[in-house]
Amino acid sequence: MSLAERYEPTERTTLTRARERATYDQETVHAILDSAYLCHLGYVRDGAPVVLPTLYGRVGDRLYLHGSTGSRPLRMAGEPDPGLPVCVTVTHVDGLVLARSAFHHSINYRCVVVHGTAHPVTEPAEKSAALDALVDHVLPGRAADSRPGNAKELAATAVIRLDLREVSAKIRTGGPNDEPEDLALPHWSGVLPVAPVYGAPVPSDDLAADIPQPAYLSAR
Amino acid sequence: MSLAERYEPTERTTLTRARERATYDQETVHAILDSAYLCHLGYVRDGAPVVLPTLYGRVGDRLYLHGSTGSRPLRMAGEPDPGLPVCVTVTHVDGLVLARSAFHHSINYRCVVVHGTAHPVTEPAEKSAALDALVDHVLPGRAADSRPGNAKELAATAVIRLDLREVSAKIRTGGPNDEPEDLALPHWSGVLPVAPVYGAPVPSDDLAADIPQPAYLSAR
């Protein structure tokens, strides 16, 4: 990475279209990653692509993904080294962009695409920190307010690491780009904003009455 | 497909874990697909996976994706035949599942994974119907209330088709599955629901004052 804190573009992180929407700025990439917790993990199995939704955490310039030691991509990343080529994509949808013409309809979004090779995390301290990061990524503050994994649980959980090196973000904002000759058409034009909204927390049936709702929950 | 309207499981749509969360029911699959509009498209380029967010539409048992004729996966699907092996995944997050133990934290979600080979759509009537389906998938009713693509726009737009054949859905609902010995721990436990919520439509600056907000917008 350059001193400007920018990911170096590579051939595959260079957009072929809408290049003005691309950014390699580290701070922007981290902000997009940190405001989501679900990614889509792509890998190749028997020559064909597989895309699965999964949670992730970030620690510095590393992404961590986890799963059962029995899960296919986690097994594949573990054996044999040198790891599993993956693509991890994180997308926020921010709005539906309605143009007068069908052609110019679009979506406002923020997206990060990470290419690289995932490696298993076996060192206990890194693995434990990765699992904390995964829990805290979903709900900051939650890792410290839950029982940490015991030896059996840690043994049943595989963690893989993906370094943030070959990374790009793509962002679209703003209204529709209608053709000048379409402006007089009688179709509504604009943006319908959309965002994930959290509802009221639903306590477990067996939750003791004296356990208050934690502040980090209300903060969502 | 069987008479029971169920997608036939294959080796790669058979889950290795949490099999009770899998379903191959056609109606369930269609409902998950129809309540989203963004998918993550996976394909293989130079042996490595690529995952990109993109819009889709559904017509019967076919998914349609589109993009610029210059976009890489659309070019790859078009030449050479017999098409591009893809995996298309659609995921809804419905809630954050907070267990007393870090290990049992989870996500409530609905997800559909489609494996198959994408083929270019070149027949004009199918292509036009596919583009209408794409617009209407984002906002039902919108295709009829926008200017259809002209010859130049249609020529600049590539459409690919993916048959729904090798398909699985995976669904998690309900509260956390805490270990019996963890129930007395002093940690809040339950579910934080989450759903996409649409804000007030933002008209384009250049929208004529006499164009009312359409009913299909308010319905979101």
UniProtKB/TrEMBL annotation, chains A, B:
It comes from Streptomyces kasugaensis. This is Pyridoxamine 5'-phosphate oxidase family protein. InterPro entries: Pyridox_Oxase-rel, Split_barrel_FMN-bd. SUPFAM superfamilies: FMN-binding split barrel.
